[in-house]
Each structure stands twice: as structure tokens, then as C-alpha cells.
Amino acid sequence: MRNALLEVTDLSRRFGGLTAVDGLNFHVNDGEIVSIIGPNGAGKTTAFNLITCIYPPSAGAISFDGLNLVGLPLHRIAAAGIGRTFQNLRVFANLTARENILVGLTRHARASFLETLFHGGRFRAEEEALAAEADRLVALLDLTPVADQLVRNLPYGDQRRVEIARALATKPKILLLDEPAAGMTPPEIEELNGMIRRLRDELGKTVLMVEHHMSLVMEISDRIIVMDQGRKIAEGTPDEVRSNPLVISAYLGSGVV
């Protein structure tokens, strides 16, 4: 039995009179691919923002690898081993794909200010190691042909891969992907499917994903969590979820059930 890497317990977030997340409970095991789905406004991205401490919870607990996340600053979240992408692309458009990845890798640099200023031995060794790791991530994410192009000039699908590669550069234990297939063409989504599988199978990454593209969710997920109006209404394997009356009602209307 795999260990729970991430545990969310009775998590809630209120914005004035609006309850965006209401008593949410779920866990993600080490090595799993878990997807969160639900209609627009269900609270999925708010849940991501709570896990990564962009918002403080109104109630509840979040534990990651035995660490209580509530109240931690953002840099501690990254240091704990949580990486994420965003619903709206967040890349450095005026840098190349490779330079975007190097930005993520700088978190692991240990050379002192003076060593960096005077290009001391440790700085040069680290620079070579980070460049090699950037090349490895470029190859892993199939970005080699565009590695030295400015990100603003890349197709949308390549920009998404750059964002994922930069998140991987922080060396996370779990990767949170917020609608990674949004705006992608069918061939790009198929490539994304294979890439996420490689992250888990070859790199041992745990993946938690919010996604609206149902064919991707059903093909790739070990488990699916379904939210509606801030609450979890179902959880299970893809086969269990697709036949759940509450899920059908949430997506298609109560008259269908």
C-alpha cells in the first residue's frame, strides 16, 4: 500500500459570503496521478491555491509529506517539494525556453555572493551542473528544437511545456498541473498524455491535476476527485466516476439522472 504524500482535511475557504471550498477531504498517494474535475466555479483552482498557500484556509488542515503547510510562506512550499503550473500561463516571455528552465534551477545554487561575483570554482561547477540539468529537462519535455527560442515566439503547446519544465526544475515531489491541456490541439494533448506518464513512470513524480479535458482525465488518472459548488461529491477510479449519478447530474443537469 502506497503512503499518502498529500492529505487535505476538512478544508474550507470563504470569500465574504461565498464559500468557494467547503469541507474538502482527499489524499494523494506517492506515485499516483490524481485528477480533480468539476463544472466551472466548482472550487478546483481555489483548492490548488490553498494547497500552495496562495490563499490561507478559513478552516481545515493540509499536510504534505508529514509537514503542516498552513501558514507557510511560498518559498517554503517550493522547498518542501511542491511544484505547480497555473491556469493562465506564467512564463518569462522574453527569455528562451532554456533560460526559463534555468530560472527554476537557480533555487538549487549554493555558491556564495563572492564566488558568484568572481566566478569562483564552486560557481563554475554549479553553472555546468545546472546547464546539464536544463539540457536534460529540455530533452525530457521534447523542447530541444525550440530550446534557444524566445518563449513569446513559441506555439501555445510549447509554452505550456516550458512552464511544466520550469516547475520540474525546482525538483518537486508532487507536481500540481492546473488545466495543462487548456488551449491545446488534439495532437498536443496526446503528447501531454505521454509526457505526464513519463513524469510518473520515469521520474517517479506524483501528479495532481485539475483538468476539463475528459478524455485525458479518463485515460491518465489513477483516481478522480469530483467537486461541485466547493464540495467533493464523488471520488474513485475513472470507471467508478463516469457512472456515478451525482457526477452525471453535476455535468449534465439533474434531469438526466
Automatic annotation (TrEMBL):
<dbReference type="InterPro" id="IPR003593">
    <property type="entry name" value="AAA+_ATPase"/>
</dbReference>
<dbReference type="GO" id="GO:1903806">
    <property type="term" value="P:L-isoleucine import across plasma membrane"/>
</dbReference>
<keyword id="KW-0067">ATP-binding</keyword>
<keyword id="KW-0813">Transport</keyword>
<protein>
    <submittedName>
        <fullName>Amino acid/amide ABC transporter ATP-binding protein 1 (HAAT family)</fullName>
    </submittedName>
</protein>
<dbReference type="GO" id="GO:0015192">
    <property type="term" value="F:L-phenylalanine transmembrane transporter activity"/>
</dbReference>
<dbReference type="InterPro" id="IPR051120">
    <property type="entry name" value="ABC_AA/LPS_Transport"/>
</dbReference>
<dbReference type="GO" id="GO:0005304">
    <property type="term" value="F:L-valine transmembrane transporter activity"/>
</dbReference>
<dbReference type="GO" id="GO:0005524">
    <property type="term" value="F:ATP binding"/>
</dbReference>
<dbReference type="GO" id="GO:0005886">
    <property type="term" value="C:plasma membrane"/>
</dbReference>
<dbReference type="GO" id="GO:0042941">
    <property type="term" value="P:D-alanine transmembrane transport"/>
</dbReference>
<dbReference type="GO" id="GO:1903805">
    <property type="term" value="P:L-valine import across plasma membrane"/>
</dbReference>
<dbReference type="Pfam" id="PF00005">
    <property type="entry name" value="ABC_tran"/>
</dbReference>
<dbReference type="InterPro" id="IPR027417">
    <property type="entry name" value="P-loop_NTPase"/>
</dbReference>
<dbReference type="GO" id="GO:0016887">
    <property type="term" value="F:ATP hydrolysis activity"/>
</dbReference>
<dbReference type="GO" id="GO:0015808">
    <property type="term" value="P:L-alanine transport"/>
</dbReference>
<feature type="domain" description="ABC transporter">
    <location>
        <begin position="6"/>
        <end position="254"/>
    </location>
</feature>
<dbReference type="GO" id="GO:0015188">
    <property type="term" value="F:L-isoleucine transmembrane transporter activity"/>
</dbReference>
<dbReference type="InterPro" id="IPR003439">
    <property type="entry name" value="ABC_transporter-like_ATP-bd"/>
</dbReference>
<dbReference type="InterPro" id="IPR032823">
    <property type="entry name" value="BCA_ABC_TP_C"/>
</dbReference>
<keyword id="KW-0547">Nucleotide-binding</keyword>
<dbReference type="Pfam" id="PF12399">
    <property type="entry name" value="BCA_ABC_TP_C"/>
</dbReference>
